[in-house]
Design brief:
The chain has ten helices and twelve strands. By secondary structure, the chain is α/β, with parallel strands linked by helices. The chain has one domain: Dihydropteroate synthase-like (TIM Barrel, Alpha-Beta Barrel), CATH 3.20.20. The strands form three sheets. Strands 10-9-8-7-6-3-12-11 form an eight-stranded parallel β-sheet. The protein has a two-stranded antiparallel ribbon with strand order 1-2. It has a two-stranded antiparallel ribbon with strand order 4-5. α2 runs parallel beside α3 and α9 packs across α10. The longest helix is centred in the middle third of the chain and has 18 residues. The structure holds ligand 8Y7. Ligand 8Y7 binds next to β9. The site of ligand 8Y7 has 16 residues, from β9.
């Protein structure tokens, strides 16, 4: 019997033998593309988040990524308390569902509190570079997704992205972060990597990174790819974020073909269908 590669995410196991879909749950009033969807008169309604989460699970999401900080370029900064007030009640409610909960946060105090509520994955766009974050992550024993971003913050990352070689620099950065995390006691088997589409990158940088995603995969860590509705797709198609579904599916398939393990998306049902078609054509999944 062959053993499938898996990743232990808290009390749940993620199958890494096929690409998994991570559904995006932004509990922010101001996020790119879907900000404010769970707010009524400026108040977060947990019930609407729960309904959306249940739908995403029905549609085939294996992971839900809960985030309370908008990383849209130029978005207002959030305080620790505000971020906690947004994400912790949601995590508490979603904890009962049959899905891996991922926390999208860079704040060690928010991460620590969410770990206490039973999340299964830490997803940090700042790759645990905030003071105290790597220690909290190491103590949790949970897997961590380390994302590349040029610069320290979404507020400034798009000022003037520049690289001699974007693929080499992203890989060098991520290798450095892996070493730093390993030194802090995070097992390498618990690390995932992400090129960070749109984070301190020009249109061309994003295209090169997607085209060369296999080079990141070749490092041997599961790779998370997040291009859903991003501006690179808007530049190619000339469409607004709400009209970028077809473009998002196309980039999701490309990422899967290049070996990505997790695809982070807004549109779960459609992405699961598209990936299933791709998967059916992969030799190891042919029905006899
Ligand atoms: C990514 C992400 C965002 C991504 C990972 C958006 C939180 C912007 N993008 N996390 N977060 N990778 N790991 O458009 O690409 O969803 S926020």
């Amino acid at each position: 019997m062959s053993t499938r590669p898996t990743l232990q995410c808290g009390d749940r196991l993620l199958d890494l033998s096929v690409p998994s879909v991570m559904g995006i749950l932004n509990v922010t009033p101001d996020s790119f593309s879907d900000g404010g969807q769970f707010y009524q008169h400026n108040v977060l309604t947990i019930d609407s988040v729960l309904r959306k989460a249940e739908q995403m699970i029905k549609d085939g999401a294996k992971i839900l990524d809960v985030g309370g900080e908008s990383t849209r370029p130029g978005a207002a900064q959030v305080t620790t308390q505000e971020e906690m007030d947004r994400v912790l009640p949601v995590i508490e409610q979603l904890r009962q569902l049959d899905v891996i909960l991922s926390l999208d946060s860079s704040d060690p105090r928010v991460i620590e509190a969410a770990v206490g509520l039973g999340i299964g994955l830490i997803n940090d766009v700042r790759a645990l570079r905030k003071e105290g974050a790597v220690e909290v992550a190491a103590n949790s024993g949970l897997p961590v997704c380390l994302m590349h971003m040029q610069g320290d913050s979404p507020q400034t990352m798009q000022d003037k992205p520049s690289y001699a070689s974007v693929v080499d620099e992203v890989i060098a950065f991520l290798n450095d972060q892996v070493d730093r995390c390993a030194s802090a006691g995070i097992e390498k088997s618990k690390i995932l990597l992400d090129p960070g589409f749109g984070f301190g990158k020009t249109f061309r940088h994003n295209l090169i990174l997607l085209n060369r995603l296999d080079q990141l995969v070749a490092l041997g860590y599961p790779v998370l790819s997040g291009s859903s509705r991003k501006s690179m797709l808007g530049l190619i198609t000339g469409r607004e974020s709400s009209q970028r579904l077809a473009a998002s599916l196309s980039s999701a398939i490309m990422a899967a073909q290049k070996g990505a393990a997790i695809i982070r998306v807004h549109d779960v049902a459609e992405t699961v269908d598209a990936l299933n078609v791709w998967k059916a054509t992969c030799e190891e999944h042919w029905e006899s």
